[in-house]
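Researcher: Let's do a round of design. I'm pasting the structure tokens now; please hold your answer until I've finished.
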């Protein structure tokens, strides 16, 4: 479906709702959202103009039940006093706009985490944001469960195991984390409505503070401390040393939560959920890459996300007390067979072209995807240079542990055939993760833990 087709369908739908002619102007796809498409536009009629946002499933990858649940959660949250974008319309019939969708009013503010954390105009908002996020989560968790019928629920550890097995790519780091999670389960608390993806990137922040909570597609029934742990996951701090979304402390978050909820969540339970959600995100990154690899949703963005698994493995090891280590230099010797430019030289040239020329394109999404593609090629270049030596060391580490491949080692950890706290195992897994990050994103190794 072209943008013109989508514009026409939106205009017909909004005209039918309003009972008068509505024109759709300025339709453009935003960069946000790897799992769902996000479009901004203006709806204009004879009396008014409204800035609106369309979220829809990628055509061909419909999840009608999920979109209906998201719309119901937004409505219930609004009724409970949570700041959300006002819901304008939603539907699951693909004939309307090509796939299940929802339309909300536009809310002014910023969603990009690095801008929220670094730009001076958000300094006042940052000062009290951790506590404000705590208060907001307490309001979300107070939404009556029967206000959103059909909320999914699953055992958190078994759900991770099921996801891991479905991916067919066992990871020793994940198996170590799963055994730790099983041993350290926190005392249960009553189920609540859980947002499921409450973090920078899914929050609109303006100069005064939180303006709206977005992206309710992962809403479910479960332990409310899950949202608190996810907000503390390291990758969403964007390099800031502050543990709560890069803006504050855990005490500030929990104190804000207690102001509304009347009780303060157990910090150890929040940390358990931080480990859980870091594991979940490692698997989710691989799952999204799988949509590209299978051909269901070809996307350089989804392909790039697959290499973020290494970041989460690194963060898991930090959370489990296995410290970071410096990546050793290990460039492969140059071959004279193909001459210069080498494959790595060619990758560098295309990377520079994307960064310096294509990124300057007027099309915002094209510029964004060019940056993604440049980052991907940067990793390819590093793998060409470092990969042969990394692979040699990887085989040596596996052999020392008595396994021929990573899958066999992961299976042995799950079966309890090797102690997941064994220092030799942890050292080998740490070295492997460091090598992966040296290719995927070496700067991540330098971020505060």
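Researcher: That's everything. Go ahead.
Model: Designed sequence:
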């Amino acid at each position: 479906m072209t943008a013109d087709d989508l514009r026409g369908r939106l205009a017909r739908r909004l005209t039918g709702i309003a009972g008068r002619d509505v024109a759709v102007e300025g339709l453009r796809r935003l960069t946000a959202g790897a799992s769902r498409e996000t479009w901004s536009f203006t709806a204009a009629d004879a009396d008014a103009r409204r800035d609106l946002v369309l979220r829809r499933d990628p055509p061909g990858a419909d999840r009608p039940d999920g979109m209906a649940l998201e719309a119901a959660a937004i409505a219930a949250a609004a009724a409970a006093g949570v700041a959300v974008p006002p819901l304008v319309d939603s539907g699951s019939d693909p004939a309307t706009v090509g796939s299940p969708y929802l339309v909300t009013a536009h809310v002014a503010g910023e969603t990009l985490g690095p801008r929220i954390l670094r730009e001076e105009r958000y300094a006042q908002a940052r000062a009290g944001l951790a506590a404000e996020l705590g208060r907001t989560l307490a309001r979300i968790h107070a939404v009556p469960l029967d206000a959103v019928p059909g909320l999914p629920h699953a055992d958190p550890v078994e759900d991770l195991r099921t996801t891991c097995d479905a991916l067919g790519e066992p990871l020793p780091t994940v198996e170590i984390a799963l055994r730790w999670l099983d041993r350290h389960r926190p005392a249960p608390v009553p189920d609540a409505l859980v947002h499921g993806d409450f973090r920078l990137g899914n929050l609109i922040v303006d100069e005064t503070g939180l303006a709206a909570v977005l992206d309710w597609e992962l809403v479910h029934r479960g332990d409310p401390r899950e949202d608190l742990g996810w907000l503390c996951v390291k990758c969403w701090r964007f390099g800031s040393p502050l543990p709560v979304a890069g803006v504050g402390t855990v005490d500030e978050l929990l104190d804000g939560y207690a102001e509304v909820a009347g009780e303060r969540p157990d910090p150890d339970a929040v940390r358990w959920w931080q480990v859980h959600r870091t594991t979940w995100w490692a698997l989710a990154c691989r799952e999204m890459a799988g949509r590209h690899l299978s051909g269901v949703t070809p996307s350089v963005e989804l392909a790039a996300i697959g290499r973020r698994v290494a970041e989460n493995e690194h963060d898991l090891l930090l959370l489990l007390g296995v410290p970071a280590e410096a990546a050793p230099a290990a460039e492969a010797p140059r071959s004279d067979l193909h001459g210069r430019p080498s494959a790595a030289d060619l990758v560098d040239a295309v990377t520079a072209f994307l960064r310096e020329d294509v990124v300057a394109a007027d099309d915002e999404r094209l510029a964004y995807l060019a940056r993604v593609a440049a980052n991907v090629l940067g990793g390819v270049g590093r793998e060409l240079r470092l990969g042969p030596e990394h692979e040699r060391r990887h085989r040596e580490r596996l052999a020392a542990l008595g396994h021929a491949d990573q899958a066999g080692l992961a299976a042995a950890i799950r079966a309890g055939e090797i102690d997941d706290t064994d220092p030799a195992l942890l050292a080998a897994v740490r070295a492997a993760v460091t090598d992966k990050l040296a290719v995927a994103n070496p700067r991540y190794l330098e971020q505060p833990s």
